[in-house]
Design a protein that fits this description.
Distance between the termini: 66 Å
Structural class: alpha/beta
Shape: globular
Helix content: 25-40%
Radius of gyration: 24 Å
Mean pLDDT: 96
CATH topology of the largest domain: Aldehyde Dehydrogenase, Chain A, domain 1
Oligomer: single chain
Number of domains: 2
Largest sheet: 7 strands, mixed
Low-confidence stretches: none
CATH class of the largest domain: Alpha Beta
């Protein structure tokens, strides 16, 4: 029986980087069956020491191949090579973070002998895998997102089936191959390239799934969550429309470089990318002008070149959408301080808009492109009301030299994280990372994901010898 092939294309050149067989319904059934059998066979679970050994060897192999992995990620995903190298380094550190969590985190002792009912008992918990993990990933960090979803599953002792994004499956397959090379039996981690929505839904909604990990659009994530089998745990990571407040006393020399990076990193294709800057009216125009000057200096082009700072959007359709949103804002009277035009090879000029109307898409929807808008404000509570006025909420930021004002914004802004004098896209892979409301469910970050992929199993020992402990 002939398998359909998926051509993986460079978003910059259109070159075919690889042709991969896609999974059929029977392939999904085979993967689920083998993974579920592994989970149900407790005698064959991988010991903690063995999981540590595999992960350590995985990190070692990745370090040896770091440059090749970075180039592969840049070519298939469009993130500039300089940033893809950082992504690979983060991915390797993420593996080490899994090992550190296995070495340092375990169960807990539950207090007993507190009354007559609990007298003579000792209670404690240990951690066990929750079940088969199914991970559906996104394109924008083609290696590190896979590590965030798959490595904690391996560390937790869960069999895992991962579906990479159709645009960027090569980095995922490379990582899974490295896991197998490091000693992980093949059925413990399986990658399925799927380009049929019905087959993907078959994988996700099967009752043998114990945990569903999703990174992608809110519309898809919440729909899939509604179709999960009873009892399936899940974590959803969607997008946001990150707000940044720049107060009247902000140090613009410090803020502008950080906001430039946070706005245009990976061409804005980051779920917590800087998109809406609420700047005090006394400095809003100066901030926007300086941000535009910095954006104009960015080198846009081939992501595989060392000097490129902004690469292409993932698809031409995304380039067209971004351009349409900007044109809508322009027609509504928005000032374009720089950019505002599509370039060759799916690239888009880094764009700074000044005070687009509230009903424009750039003001209230996630643009996922290299476009940032600056909104002047006079009253901080009004700015906070605008920042909080959307159904999505994720990370945020505030620039100020006043600790009281920083604390005020931290207290009143709707966000899971507030960066003080930093851009909203700051992240380390061990910190909690959580979208609120439409932006997600559960807590990401490697140690947190690992815990969510395990259950706390309690042991209660009853003996009169234990009375009084």
């Amino acid at each position: 029986m002939r398998q359909d092939l998926l051509d993986v294309l460079s978003p910059y050149s259109g070159e075919v980087l690889g042709s991969l067989p896609t999974a059929s319904s029977s392939d999904v059934e085979h993967s689920l069956s083998s993974a579920y059998q592994l989970f149900r066979s407790r005698r064959n679970w991988l010991a903690r020491a063995r999981r540590i050994e595999i992960l350590q060897k995985t990190a070692h192999i990745m370090a040896e191949r770091a440059e090749a992995l970075a180039l592969q990620a840049a070519q298939e995903g469009g993130k500039p090579l300089v940033d893809s190298r950082v992504e690979v380094a983060r991915a390797i550190d993420g593996i080490h973070c899994c090992v550190d969590s296995l070495r340092s985190e375990g169960g807990e002792v539950i207090p007993m002998n507190l009354d007559s009912a609990s007298s003579g008992r000792l209670a404690l918990t240990s951690r066990e895998p929750v079940g088969v993990v199914v991970a559906v990933s996104a394109f924008n960090h083609p290696l590190n997102l896979i590590v965030h979803q798959v490595a904690p599953a391996v560390a937790a002792g869960c069999p895992v089936i991962v579906k990479p994004a159709q645009d960027t499956p090569l980095s995922c397959l490379s990582f899974v191959d490295i896991l197998h090379e490091a000693g992980l039996p093949e059925d413990w981690c399986q990658a399925l390239v799927i380009n049929d929505l019905a087959i993907a839904e078959q994988l996700v909604t099967d009752p043998r799934v114990g945990f569903f990990s999703f990174i992608g659009s809110a519309a898809v994530g919440w729909t899939l969550r509604s179709k999960l089998a009873p009892g399936v745990r899940c974590a959803l990571e969607h997008g946001g429309v990150a707000p940044v407040l720049v107060l009247e006393d902000a140090d613009l020399d410090r803020a502008v470089p950080l906001l430039t990076k946070g706005s245009f990193y990976h061409a804005g294709q980051v779920c917590v990318s800087v998109q809406r800057i609420f700047a005090h009216q006394h400095l809003a125009e100066e901030l926007a002008t300086r941000l535009a000057a910095a954006a104009t200096e960015l080198i846009v082009g081939d992501p595989s070149r060392d000097n490129t700072e902004v690469g292409p959007l993932i698809r031409q359709a995304e380039q067209l959408r971004v351009n349409n949103w900007v044109e809508e804002a322009v027609e509504a009277g928005t000032s374009v301080l720089c950019g505002g035009a599509a370039l060759n090879h799916n690239c888009y000029q880094p764009t700074v808009l000044l005070d687009p109307p509230a009903n424009c898409k750039v003001s209230h929807q996630e643009i996922f492109g290299p476009v940032v808008s600056v909104f002047p404000y006079s009253d901080i509570d009004h700015a906070l009301s605008l920042a909080n006025g959307l159904d999505s909420a994720f990370q945020s930021a505030v620039f100020t030299q006043d600790i009281e004002q920083a604390a005020y914004v931290y207290r009143h802004i709707d966000a899971s994280a507030v960066m003080i004098n930093d851009h909203s896209a700051f992240r380390t892979d061990w910190m909690p990372f959580a979208g609120l409301r439409l932006s997600g469910l559960g807590v990401g970050g490697i140690p947190h994901t690992l815990r969510e992929m395990q259950i706390a199993k309690m042991l209660v020992l009853n003996s009169p010898v234990l009375g009084g402990l």
